[in-house]
Amino acid sequence: MNGVQTLSAIENRSTAVIIADQLREGIVAGTFVSGDQINEAQLAERLQVSRGPVREALHRLVQEGLLEGRPNRGVFVKEVTRRDIAEVAEAREVIECAAAEVITSMEAEQRDRIAEALVAATEPMAAAVASGDRDRLRRADLAFHTQLVRSGENTRLLRAYTTLATEALICMLHFGDSEPDDDLIASHVHIAELMRSGDMEAVHLALHEHLSIDELDLHSHDEETLRHGRVEG
């Protein structure tokens, strides 16, 4: 019976999950754009499935905030607002800084290993820049930041960041039309090297600058305390 041990478990995903994954990927890739209507009947016919799993898949994506139901009209791809983009950037900064607090408090040897892994994570980004592949670059960019959060060894932070991942990719799609260049790679390498240094204040400022979007500025800091918050008018 030893041969049984060589077999892999069969992936068991429901039809609704598979449909949701396909739709999610289509939204991230821009195949479905903001405001597009997702017709349940047409989708079921196209996928050759009953409407039950399609309805469940749409419900999943509504819960994730990628689709929205409009009374008496149907289900639509949620329109990404300027505030959505800014809030995702803010949430990413808070989570990444929390992970960085853990990393910068580690021993130098651990920080070195993490920094080297983060520098290595810029290689797929460099390849995407060289080929001009924006979609590949967005995904590699987010993979770098996810690796940073994972290095903080806090499963709750990673779970929260992973939840943001799809929205982050969509926001990059809406606010990432500039030509990819080597400066982007350099900024990520800089963050990795600051992790190595253990200087949390410098890390925080670098992450804030890296993730901020000037045109969509909702987030600010008290310059002396680096406290997260909003400027009150």
Question: Concise description?
Answer:
This protein has 233 residues and is mainly α. The chain is built from 10 helices and 5 strands, in the order αβααββαααααααββ. InterPro entries: GntR_C (IPR011711), TF_FadR/GntR_C (IPR008920), Tscrpt_reg_HTH_GntR (IPR000524), WH-like_DNA-bd_sf (IPR036388), WH_DNA-bd_sf (IPR036390).
- H/E series: HEHHEEHHHHHHHEE
What composes the largest sheet?
3 strands, antiparallel
Task: List low-pLDDT spans.
Answer: 4-10, 227-233
Instruction: Bin the strand percentage.
Output: 5-15%
Work out the helix count.
10
Overall outline: elongated
Content-based structural category: mainly alpha
The first-level CATH class name of the largest domain: Mainly Alpha
CA radius of gyration: 20 Å
CATH topology of the largest domain: Four Helix Bundle (Hemerythrin (Met), subunit A)
CATH superfamily of the largest domain: GntR ligand-binding domain-like
> What is the second-level CATH architecture of the largest domain?
Up-down Bundle
Proportion of helical residues? 55-70%
Question: Average pLDDT, to the nearest integer?
Answer: 85
Protein name: GntR family transcriptional regulator
GO molecular function: DNA binding; DNA-binding transcription factor activity
InterPro entries: GntR_C (IPR011711), TF_FadR/GntR_C (IPR008920), Tscrpt_reg_HTH_GntR (IPR000524), WH-like_DNA-bd_sf (IPR036388), WH_DNA-bd_sf (IPR036390)
Keywords: DNA-binding, Transcription, Transcription regulation
